[in-house]
Amino acid sequence: MNGHDDGAASIGQALHELVADLYPLCRSITGDGLRQTLRRIARHIPLTIEEVPTGTPVLDWTVPNEWTIRDAWVADASGGRVIDFQRSNLHVMSYSAPVRATMTLAELRPHLFTLPEQPDRIPYRTSYYREAWGFCLTHRQLQALPEGTYDVCIDATLAPGTLSYGECYLPGATPAEVLLSTHACHPSLGNDNLSGVAVATRLAAHLAALPRRRYSYRVLFVPGTIGAITWLARNEHRLHHVTHGLVLACLGDRGRITYKKSRRGTAEIDAVVAHVLAASGDAHDVVDFRPYGYDERQFCSPGFDLPVGCLTRTPPGRFPEYHTSADDLDFVRPESLADSFEKLCAVLTTLERNAVYVNRSPRGEPQLGRRGLYRSIGGDDAAAEELALLWVLNLSDGHHSLLAIAERAGYPFETIWRAATRLQEHGLLAPARPS
Ligand code: ZN
């Protein structure tokens, strides 16, 4: 193993440990599980936890009641718990209204949810915006329930409280922002959504430790849909700063990376992610925007149309473990988490370095040999490095970014960026506009 692999292994392990730390908490779109999750994230990064009161109007929505779940079970006539929230928080439908009743299996049956095609897995079900109650269980558990009467209890409260979300803001040299957002509202599920939470947390820690940031960064940990809508409603006045953005989710399964472009489709973030994935040499997919998925739906709604794409490995709903108890700690792979994190670091580094320059000696080629820039480099890459100088000088007319030059020349961004750095050191290149 070389040093790079050692680093990836330890990053993967640290990411998986964070997933495992957060896994037991019973998160939902509001409530203490979400709040505790944010507090644990705040041990790693400078996080502001916002609390927005129930009833607050947010765009076309209203912040809902807060859900507090203490216990839930179905017990048979002998008092034995045949469905028990204490064994898995997936057993109670998220946002279930409180209930305390004795009923027959036939009466209980409409409130029981299973996956007949995956009979050993507990489904994940929610009822956020319609008051209801229910239990989720394996199909085998259901089939084993005898006729008879059952005691049913969901010890929960749905009452005015707050919606919590977390925000980590890291100022840079410019107020132009890179927005990173992940949903943090699912209970004991690993890939969807704790992989995104863990990778976003580590990215924020990585960015916070950088000696210099060109961009400012805002990393959001929000309950899905309502959290993004709440954040947008409270931040409309500063959305013009959002220059690039990514929604992060499902980053820990074994599948290849999938990048879903922003609604615009031609944003700089779209070009940067596509370039980084192609340069990695790893199998990947780049797909067009569509208005379902995660919170890119909100950021890319037509009234905002922010340049925000979505990075996952296997997209939501495309893996059989999705929204079931099989999306557990084993399904999330340390090596996949590390690979997702490293590719995201490459994306952010490319964003930081991509800029438009002007050739300061544009009439004829400047004499590179006199400046020690030509035939001065040894090794196999020398020819490519020299050609890169010529590409940068020729296309740096104030209109082509370094990424555009890399794409047109067919070079990795790194090579073009190195060439631009050398030309700047020799006074042959200057930023087209200050950044
Ligand atoms: Zn989900």
Q: What can you see in these coordinates?
A:
The chain has 435 residues and is of the alpha/beta class. The protein has 3 domains: 8-64 and 162-351, Zn peptidases (Aminopeptidase), CATH 3.40.630; 68-159, Glucose Oxidase, domain 1, CATH 3.50.30.90; 356-431, Winged helix-like DNA-binding domain superfamily/Winged helix DNA-binding domain (Arc Repressor Mutant, subunit A), CATH 1.10.10. The protein is built from 12 helices and 19 strands. The chain has helices spanning 3-22, 32-41, 105-108, 139-143, 190-208, 226-234, 268-280, 296-299, 334-353, 382-395, 402-409, 413-425; strands spanning 48-53, 57-58, 61-62, 66-75, 81-84, 99-104, 112-113, 135-136, 149-159, 162-170, 177-183, 216-222, 242-248, 257-260, 284-287, 308-312, 356-359, 397-401, 429-431. The strands form 5 sheets. It has an 8-stranded mixed sheet, sandwiched between helices. A 4-stranded antiparallel sheet has the order 5-4-9-6. The protein has a 3-stranded antiparallel sheet with strand order 18-17-19. Helix 1 (3-22) crosses helix 5 (190-208). The longest helix has 20 residues, at 3-22. The protein is elongated and about 95 Å long. The structure holds zinc ion. The site of zinc ion has 4 residues, from loops.
